[in-house]
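Can anyone check this?
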Amino acid sequence: MHKTLPIALLFSVGVLFSCSLYAADVAPAEDFDWQQECQRVKNLQLPKEDMPSRVVLDSVQGCSADQLYFAAQGDSNAKQGNWDRVRACAIVTNANAVVMMLYANGYGVKVNYDLAINYACKLGAIQSDYAVDDLIYDLAELSVTGVKPDKPIELSYYATSGLALKFADAEEWRKRELERMRSLDDISRSWSKAHKTAFAKLRQAAEDFAQTSSRNEADQVGTGRAEFINGIYEKVKSDFVQDVERGEKGEFPSYSQADFAELDNKLNKAYLAIMHPGPEDKQPYEISTGITPEGIKEAQRAWLKYRDAWVAFGKVRYPAVPAHAWKVMLTERRIKQLEDLKDMVDRTGVQ
C-alpha cells in the first residue's frame, strides 16, 4: 500500500490519490527504488515544441514561476499563452517543482509523467521538506497506467517538514495575490500607453523587491521561516497596491526636500548598522538566522530600483507630485524594515 502522507497546501488544494489508481506491476512504495527511477529518466529532454520562444522569454524577465503558476491555475479563463509564460519562467529560473507539475497535470503541455519524474528528481535542497520518493512512486505508477487522476498532482501533498506544512494557507495566499493583481489590472485598464508602460516597470520592480527582500531578509532558520518569508512579501505587495489606490484618489504623499535629506541620512545609518555591526554586537547573525550581508545588499539594490521606478511612474502619472515626496514615502518604510531586521538579528544572534 502507498504510505500515508500529511496533507498540506503549498501550491493548491486537492486530494491525495488512492493506491487503487495505480498499476500492480510497479513495486510497493516500501520497496521502490526512486533513485533507480531517476536514473531511468535522467536523459529525457524537454520537447522542442515546448521550449519558449525569445518573445516569451523576454516577457518573463524577473518573474516568479510560483506566482505565475498560482495565477494561471486560479484563472478559469487561463489560455495557452498564460501557461507558456509559466513554463518559460519555470525553465529560466530552474523552478523544477513547477515544471514537474506542468507535465504531471498537462497544463499547457501534453501530459508526460516520465518528464515529470525527471524534474521531481531535480528538486534538490527541498527534498528534505517533502516525501520525494513517494511523489516519484506515484508518478511512476501513473506513467505505467496512463490514467489521469481526478485531481491535480501537487507537491503540497508530499509535505513532511514543518517548513512545508507552514504553507498550509497557500490557497488563501494565492487568493490574496490574485486579488492584488486584478485590482491593479482594473485600476490601470483605461490608462494611456505611456502610463501603462511606466506602471508595468513599477509593478515588476515591486515584485522584484518583494521577492528579494522576503528571500534574503527573513529568518531562514527553523520551521517558522515560511511564515516570515510570506509576511515580508505580503507587506511589500499590500503597501504597493494601497499606494496606487491612494494615488488614484488624489491622496498623495506631501513632504519637503529637507524631509528627504534627513531620512536619506537616517536610512544610510540603518543600513550600515545591519551591514557592519560594531564589536559590541553579537556574533555574525548568519549563524543564527541564515541572513547574510550579501543578501541584504541584494535586497537594498532591489529596493533602490523599486524607489526609482516609483519616481519614474509618478512623474508620468502624477506630475504634480515631486520626486522627493515618493522617495520619503518609501524611505520611511525601508528604514522601519531595516531597523526591525536589526532588532531581530540582535535578539537571535549568538552570544
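Reply from J.R.: I decoded it. The two ends are 49 Å apart (CA to CA).
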